[in-house]
Amino acid sequence: MNYEELEKLGLDTGFSHIAPLKCSTIELLPEVRQMCEANTCGMYGKRWSCPPGCGTLEDCRAKINQYQAGILVQTVGELEDSMDGETMMETEALHKQNFYAMEKLLRETYPDMLAIGAGCCTKCETCTYPDEPCRFPKKAFSSMEAYGMLVTQICKANDMTYYYGPCTIAYTSCYLLE
Fold first, then answer.
1. Burial call 84-110: b when 16+ CB within 10 Å, e when fewer
2. Using alpha carbons only, what angle is made at residue 122 by residues 7 and 141, rounded to the nearest 5 degrees?
């Protein structure tokens, strides 16, 4: 697929914005991984898709190095005010729904793509971490932050807006395709 086809597919799937992604712009930063270790989301050490289960930064770099290009996708929500947690959660749920739908469509053309989401993988109701291997290692996904990516930097390096003004929230994910 060319970029225009990917963009149309992304918009048709429900994303607000789509941009081409050059994998050479992806930096993996130890300080982002350290934020994961602070466990503010409560998932550190609880899922295969989260650190340390998703591997070291070197492991993540090795996966990314298999690709040269992909796309960034975003879902932007309008908040009533900066404390509008309900709309934040609704926007996150919509983004994840769009992410899964687009992943399914892209896998028809790119069966070996690497999907990297926003938030932790929720393919299974209960993760097997750390007692058993992941049930679906080819379908599971980690977040951009779990990989050590600073989302604002990735967006900037690929000409995608990240901040859309006050009372907005943007969830960003990517698919590494080739």
1. beebeeebbebbbebbbebbeebeeeb
2. 55
Q: Which residues contact 24 (CB under 8 A, 6 or more apart)?
A: 68
The dihedral over CA atoms of 9, 12, 14, 19, expressed in degrees to the nearest 10, equals 40
**Structure tokens given for 113:** 């793509």
φ/ψ region of 98 (left if φ > 0, alpha if ψ in -120 to 50, else beta) reads alpha
> Is this structure's pTM higher than 0.85?
yes
User: Distance between CA atoms of 94 and 165, rounded to whole angstroms?
Assistant: 20
How many residues are recorded in the chain? 178
Give tens-digit pLDDT for 56-95: 999 999 999 999 999 999 999 999 999 999 999 999 999 9
Mean pLDDT taken over the chain: 95
